[in-house]
Amino acid sequence: MKTDTIAAIATGMSNGGISIIRISGEDSLAIADKIYRSKSGRKKLSDQESHTVHYGYIYDGEDLIDEVIVVIMKNPNSYTREDVVEINCHGGMLVTKRVLETVIKYGARTAEPGEFTRRAFLNGRIDLSQAEAVIDVINAKNKYALSSSVNQLKGTVLYKIREVRESILHDTAFIEAALDDPEHISVDGFADTLKIRVEENLGILRKLKKSADNGRILKEGVKTVILGKPNAGKSSLLNVLLGEERAIVTDIEGTTRDTLEETIQLDSVMLQVMDTAGIRETADVVEQIGVEKARSFAEQADLLLYLVDASREFDENDTLILNFIKEKLETSKVIILLNKQDLDTVITKEDMENLLKKYTDTICPILTISTKNETGIDSLEDTLKELFYQGKLDFNDEICITNVRQKEAIEEAIDSLQQVIQSIEDQMPEDFYSIDLMNAYEVLGKIIGEAVEEDLVNKIFKEFCMGK
Q: Is residue 442 within 8 Å of 416, Cβ to Cβ?
């Protein structure tokens, strides 16, 4: 681990009211003393109490650079658990760079991306799951994602993983002690007790694994595909949701031949929306490629918006679409939109409900909209929130796994604990239990940064921005 003193601009790289240059390391205060002068010119920052604020000036020798506010935080009570100095200067990029250059000139080096948070992790202030939550807070694109990331930053994942690991370690230690000293420690009946505890831990881990889908939706948005037969209004719907003319709209069927993807924020719901080619049997080679793409993306979608042209009778294309999305219908991940309510309609909600009964017993949301008049969009937004979030994303103490690395470790731990259950049921010797218990213990340790490879740590922190 590098222990030298680092510095970086911690605020956005653009002109603003204030910029912050962050310094961390054992020479932080010494460097600050060389370049900082108080109004009286006699105050040394290294002599001041931790967590205090000081007004003064930054100098390079006798060259005045800027009027500043300096915050000092002495170890171990800082973000990195090192001495930290934060210089708040005026927000112009020229002056900000001058201050940073001066800090580096007098003994610091430029920090690598994420190096401040890396030091916080290596110095034991946060675990790896909390470090990953830092970048999630920075990149949060909606209030639910922010709430989830802040909860993880507080250590919700850490505490739950520690709870499971401590239970596993306790049982493993008992087995090992009994194997070493069978005359004084009996394992009679222990298998039944162990099975109960392992099943409890499996319940915890399965719940965490299940939360990963919600975590991905929070982080990346709801993968949404707009399906419908040609000229149902799919591109018009995308334009209405976007609030701009992004997709080409004509009265000619088959205008959309490829997919078009956009990110849309509807109040608190973020959608990754894909407009697709109209689903129909076609001899046009190019259009057929678009239809196949639509099918492929729909299979991976979290949500399908099935847009029905309510001004036209059902036809074989609607049957084709309903057969294709039958599985999604049975999981309530489809919203049916009866479009063109501005025209004389021939399909009602009741008609749609009767048709759906041929495909599923699940109740599917059916809304009436007009993309031309932009009516019904508020109802769509409310339905989306109810369908995906169901009022549960205030979170409180809810734990949500938000990245693939953590999910994969949990899945491996679940496999190991299931093997323990199998060994118990097969009445295998106790040393078989400890092998799988320890594997679960070790892979769970990867989530919080214990027994984790240095290359993985480097990869995680390289995703951070400078100054964090």
A: no
